[in-house]
Amino acid sequence: MVATRLTDRSDFLDPAVKEKKRFEQMLDERVAAGLNKGIEVLMTEVEFVCATTQKADDFNPDASGNPSPDVMDIGPSETAGKIVEIVSSHTRMLIGSTDKNMLDVFNQEVGLRTFTALCKHLKRQRISVAGSIKLISDMNHYFSYIQTLKNQNLLQYFIALRELAQIYLVGAEDAKELATIIADGDRFHGIFRAEDVYEYAGRRADWFQIRPKVDRALYGYGCCVM
């Protein structure tokens, strides 16, 4: 039609041009809806892996009732390995099959929803000082994967998650240091507030023993928490 001068590409009022734009908009909406549905299915799988493969003694070795092994495995847990494998396989599928902008949007959305799923998962765990080594390994594993996506905004969330894991490494005798970490908003790049970090600290295996000392350091004597 253009070749025979029946339509003019530059005429935005031309019915053919308007129809073409409408079709392109509909196509973009369908692609976005399809990607969103794919992400939802992916996150369902991630949450299932978290719920079914994470062992109680991964982050709390004493929960098994067996003596601590002489040699501790400091690598990431089976769960972390599976999650990175699942998520990365999905993000790789779009490489070369879509434009960079769409790929960046998809990767960011997948990364943020993975972050949310991991935060939810962390709140279900009981973590000891000894088990914190495994947790830190897991967080480093997630961080290393997110680095490959080359998205600095997304990376900040996983830097904060990696810092969060450090609150479980602090010994019970250092409750004051733990309180200092909880109150340090800059440490978590504004992604976790002090009250959020305090809630995560409540997942420590020794929390009921050290909580009075942490509360004293944070709020002083006789103060109600939150």
Structural class label: mainly alpha
Average pLDDT for all residues: 84
Runs with pLDDT <50, length 5+? 222-226
What is the radius of gyration? 24 Å
Gap between N and C termini: 69 Å
User: Which percent band covers the strand fraction?
Assistant: under 5%
Helix content: 55-70%
Give the tally of β-strands: 0
What order do the helices and strands follow? HHHHHHHH
The shape, in one word, is elongated
How does the major sheet shape up?
none
Number of helices: 8
Structure in words:
The chain has 226 residues and is mainly α. The chain contains eight helices and no strands. It has helices at 15-53, 78-93, 100-122, 132-147, 152-164, 175-183, 194-201, 207-219. The model is unreliable at 222-226 (pLDDT under 50).
Please outline the helices and strands:
Elements: H1 15-53, H2 78-93, H3 100-122, H4 132-147, H5 152-164, H6 175-183, H7 194-201, H8 207-219
Helix pairs in contact: 1-2, 1-3, 2-4, 3-5, 4-5, 6-8
Features of this protein?
226 residues, mainly alpha, 8 helices, elongated, disordered C terminus
